[in-house]
Amino acid sequence: MNQIGFLYTDAFVTIASMNLANLVNFYTQFLGQKPISLIPNVYAEFQLSGVRLGIFQPKTTHESEFTTSAKSTMSLCLEVSNLEDAIAHLKTLGYPPPGNISIASHGREIYAYDPNGNRLILHQNNS
């Protein structure tokens, strides 16, 4: 039973972008899929395994909230089957990870960044 006092039907992650078309193009190429929903200059949405990723252009009245933000503590973490292939794909898109693969208790991972500087964590499980 839901104990939080309200019902929700879905959950998804959104990224704000002042250059929506550029970021949508990046994720279209990076994820190898077109958005399932696209409103030019307003919103795009991708269906990922287990979560939806929305990208929106803030309204003019809210732009300052997103353009002056410090580095976000949030990351989009994608578990991949082959970390080296994912890194090679990012390189071909022109966004190579700036660091090296690190070993974590749960597997190998590397940080990368999309065109807006949002952190991507590419993770390959130990198994």
Describe this structure in words.
- Helices cover 21% and strands 32% of the residues.
- It has 127 residues and is α/β, with parallel strands linked by helices.
- It has a four-stranded mixed beta sheet, with helices on one face. A four-stranded mixed beta sheet has the order 5-8-7-6, with helices on one face.
- Strand 6 and strand 7 (107-113) form a beta hairpin.
- The longest helix has 12 residues, at 20-31.
- It is globular.
Layout of secondary structure:
Elements: E1 12-16, H1 20-31, E2 37-39, E3 43-48, E4 51-56, H2 63-67, E5 76-79, H3 83-92, E6 102-104, E7 107-113, E8 119-125
Parallel strand pairs: 1-4, 5-8
Antiparallel strand pairs: 2-3, 3-4, 6-7, 7-8
- Helical stretch tally: 3
Residue runs with pLDDT of under 50 for 5 or more positions: none
Binned, the helix content reads 10-25%
The radius of gyration over CA amounts to 16 Å
What's the β-strand tally? 8
Query: What is the arithmetic mean of pLDDT?
Result: 88
Q: Given the C-alpha coordinates, what overall shape results?
A: globular
> What multimeric state do the chains show?
single chain
Quote the distance from N terminus to C terminus: 34 Å
- Taken as a percent bin, the fraction of beta residues is 25-35%
What structural class is derived from the secondary structure elements? alpha/beta
Widest sheet, order of strands: 1-4-3-2
Largest sheet: 4 strands, mixed
**SSE ordering:** EHEEEHEHEEE
